[in-house]
Every structure is written in C-alpha cells, then in structure tokens.
Amino acid sequence: MKRISHILQELTEHYPLINHRHLRRVKTVTDAGGKSAHILLCQLPEALDFEPHCHEKLLSVTSIDLSDFSSESYCCRAASTPPITRKQFEMCKHDWPTSFHENKLLEKQLQGPDFSEFDSMCMAMAHEQVNQSVSSLVHKCGAVIADTERKQLIGIGHSMTGAHPLKHAVMVAIDSVAHNHGGGVWDSTPVLSADRIGEARKRKADLSTNEGGYICTGYTAYLTHEPCSMCAMALLHSRIKHVHYNSPTSSGALGTVYKLHCHGKLNHSFTVTKRVKPIASSGS
User: Fold this and answer.
1) Tally of CB atoms within 10 A around 205
2) For residue range 178-215, what is the model confidence (pLDDT) as tens digits?
C-alpha cells in the first residue's frame, strides 16, 4: 500500500488509460486479511493470452518491484465507455470503480416527460394544426414553438408542402417565430392571434428579449411527429433548447434513422423526449 504512488506513476507512463480515463486505477478491498489494493494494469493486449502470471511480463518494462504484488494476477471486466446515467454507473461500479458525473436534467428526462398544464396545451395545439395541413406528404404534421419559462406561445406551423416543398410543419413554425419577431419569409405562414394566446402573452417583435440572438434560443418545440433531417437541422441552427414529439417516423432524424441532437461535432445540441407509438409514415 505504501508504494502505490510510485506504482501508479510508472503505470501511467508505460500503460496510460488513454481511452479509459473513466476507470480508477486502484480498488481497495477489505477481506479477512485486512485492506489490500487491487491495481488496474492495462487493457489485456490481444497478442497476450491471459495467464495467472501475465503481470510479470507486463511489468517487466517498468521499474516496479514485483515483490509488491501477489504471486498471481487476474483478468476482470470493466466499463469500456464512461457511464452517462446513474443506472449505468451502478452496473459499471460492480465490475471496477468508475468515475461518474451525474446529469440531473438527463436523469429527469429519462423518467419520462413531466408535462405541465402549459406543455399539454402546446401539444394539443400542435395536434390542432394537423387538421389545417395542406400537404403532399404522406403524413400531415403540426408544430408549436414556445417559451416555457415565460409560458408564452411563440410560433405555430402545419404541413404546407402542397404550396412549397420546403414547408414542412417545423419549417413553417420556425418562420412563424420569425414573424412574431418582426421578420419572416413566407407570407402564408400562420401567425399566432391574440384571441388564442391573449394580448398580454403575445410575443413582442423584439429580438433583444431572445438572449443569444438566435431565433429559437431557449425555446421548446412541440411536434406531433419526429422531424426529418432538414427540419431537425433547422431546429439545431435555430438553437432550440428542447424538442418533444409524439410519434416516430420512418425518416426521423431524432432517434429513428439518425440521432442528430447527439452528434458531438455540431456546435449546438438540444434535448429530446418522445412518446412511444408505432412508426408513422415519413413526414414532418
């Protein structure tokens, strides 16, 4: 136990855990003989068959005194990747001590969406939008974008591909947000009316109230169906904060075909929740 510091320094130099930094090198075990330290040497090389004395070969390139070790080594399981949920962490730590930094937001989302009255209203409005869809897509969709902190509706949209091939529900809803900010591109985009949300709750055409400058920064999108790649990327570029959709689609980019929101090389990410329903035909 007294020479662990030197041993760890040597192991870090000769066998760094470059791809396994989440694994702790030492596991303290208490048995009938007292405390002892089990040390993780390295990932077993493919060229080396495991045998009870293989640690002697592995440590021969170091200055570690083999007398500090027991006469036999053993092979153990360990997590190949860092755990991202507490359930994964509880499973991993039984094999070998593992580092874990809890993401409380993720844990809450894994328990299922905790819909408030405002959330339910937004999703109900998204489904109402489906009835107004004029679309060449097989499946018609509805979308609502809202500021959940201020409980304000910001934009609405439904499938309008019959008028323009790019007018998927999500694209229309983002343009609706732009209209409520004093901009917008498509003249036929539905805009929230005062009788639906109340004049006091209607979003003012002032970009300065939307911190960050991006059109949907901090907002939540409520979608009847999983968006396609185009719509998912539009939500990402708009800096949406969270997306909730009810039904997966055969071309969906948030879980079915792709997981765009999990792509590590993109400069923005957002969280996603969904209800488990049968896969619907392509559309967004």
Assistant:
1) 12
2) 888 778 888 878 777 655 544 333 444 344 444 546 78
Reference 228, options 175, 276, 186, 167; nearest CA is 167
Contact 158, 231 (CB under 8 A): no
Indicate the burial class of 282 (C-beta count within 10 angstroms; 0-12, 13-18, 19 or more).
middle
pTM above 0.70, yes or no: no
- The residue behind tokens 């679309």 is 135
CA–CA gap between residue 62 and residue 72 (Å, rounded): 18
Question: Distances in Å between the alpha carbon of 260 and those of 108, 114, 255, 266, 268?
Answer: 21, 23, 8, 9, 10
Spell out the residues 6+ positions from residue 16 whose beta carbon is closer than 8 angstroms to its own.
none
Per residue in 268-282, pLDDT (tens digit) is: 888 888 865 444 555
CB 140 within 8 A of CB 283: yes
Helix 229-237 with 169-180: angle, nearest 10 deg: 20
Looking up tokens 């009847």 gives 224
88 dihedral zone (left: phi>0; alpha: psi -120 to 50; beta): alpha
Residue 39: beta bridge partners? 26
CA distances from 7 to 18, 30, 41, 98 (A): 17, 20, 10, 19
Ranges of beta strands (E only) in the chain are 26-31, 34-39, 142-147, 152-158, 220-225, 242-247, 271-274
Closest C-alpha among 101, 81, 71, 69 to residue 23:
81
- For residues 3 and 190, what is the distance between their CA atoms, to the nearest angstrom? 72
Q: What is the C-alpha separation between 159 and 7, in angstroms, rounded?
A: 64
Collapsing DSSP to helix, strand or coil, 68 comes out as helix
**Cα(first)–Cα(last) distance of the chain, in Å?**
61
